Amino acid sequence: MTRPLLALLLTLALPLHAALNDAPDFSDPVENTRYQHLIQNIRCPTCQNSNIAESNAPLARQLREQIAARIRDGESDSDINRWLQERYGDFIHYDPPLKTQTLLLWGGAPAAMLIALALWLAGRRRKIVARLTDEEKKQLQQWIEEAS
């Protein structure tokens, strides 16, 4: 009974061990905080909507290592962000800067919602009232008289 339980615990502990070994050691807690903040806010270029902190993709691991090395070398957060943006474009950030290239990204969804709302309201206001022709009015009057 203890051997299967021990095997299960070892199997469950291996991924945790790998994750702990992946985290860099910083002597300064401020550097560690900067590192954690950066990797949480940088999108993984190979994953669907995942940051590099959560991704196990090889590229995400490389980026984490490079960010840690750049922090140790004394680069500022803005320098690291600029380097990432030059290399991967605005996509790398979850919060891209507002400029002409990203204007559609920032304003596209609200503009589409406003257009959809305007079309919906216009459709509701434009109720088509069907008018009866003279012949249809006579036929209707005949049916009413026959029914009474």
What can you see in these coordinates?
The chain is mostly helical. 66% of the residues lie in helices and 0% in strands. The protein is built from 6 helices and no strands. One of its GO terms (molecular function) is lyase activity.
Topology as H/E string? HHHHHH
- Give the helix tally: 6
Give the N-to-C terminal Cα separation.
91 Å
- Largest pleated sheet: none
Quick one: how many beta strands?
A: 0
User: Could you name the ranges where pLDDT drops below 50 across 5 or more consecutive residues?
Assistant: none
Estimate percent helicity: 55-70%
- The proportion of residues in beta strands is under 5%
CATH class of the largest domain: Mainly Alpha
Q: Please, what is the CATH homologous superfamily of the largest domain? A: Cytochrome C biogenesis protein
Helix vs. strand class: mainly alpha
Oligomer: single chain
Write down the CATH topology of the largest domain. Answer: Helicase, Ruva Protein, domain 3
Count up the domains: 2
CATH architecture of the largest domain: Orthogonal Bundle
Shape field: elongated
Mean pLDDT: 83
